Amino acid sequence: MLDRMKDAVDAELRDQQAGFRKDRSCTDQIATLRIIVEQSVEWNSSLYINFIDYEKAFDSVDRRTLWKLLRHYGVPEKIANIIRNSYDGLQFKVVHGGQLTDAFQVRTGVRQGCLLSPFLFLLVVDWLMKTSTSEGKHGMQWTAQNQLEFLNFPDDSQCSISLCISRLQNTQGKTKVLKFKTKNTNSTTLDGETLEDVESFAYL
């Protein structure tokens, strides 16, 4: 089912999205980012890189939005119905103090550990990125032909200018800023939080 969903959706995803896609990986994004940094230094141009980590990424997905996105991205209706029905009345129990709690419903998020969940989350992130950059100025002109925007992989995003997030919240303490060839000492803020400037970052 995952393979069929990928085949239907892949052509609709942005080129910048590398997570959970065939013949794409984290190393592609790292190589791209390294080239960007090297060319920025070579051209003596300022570069600001904002690494954003989503807090409780899988738990933050709004399911009603997700069901709409399955149709929006062209997932076959039969598969979309199977996925949606598998979440209807979904109940959980947890062990607390050595005792199993009563069953309770969780109405948001996608399942942890499910093979489908990473790809379902990818659809949400891809849609957020598309809608947040659909109007106005975004990214930066890198060459005469190429506009530089976002690089995405699982629940981390790197962007060159800014990021508009709906429902997903950035993880405090894990969202960092790298600056190259700039004399600007002003701090960067996101949702009222001052982001830490760092000299290096473990990308994933």
Automatic annotation (TrEMBL):
Transmembrane portions of the chain: none
Any Pfam family from its record, for instance, is RVT_1
Q: Where is the Reverse transcriptase domain?
A: 1-204
Spell out the protein name for this chain: Reverse transcriptase domain-containing protein
Report the source organism: Schistosoma margrebowiei
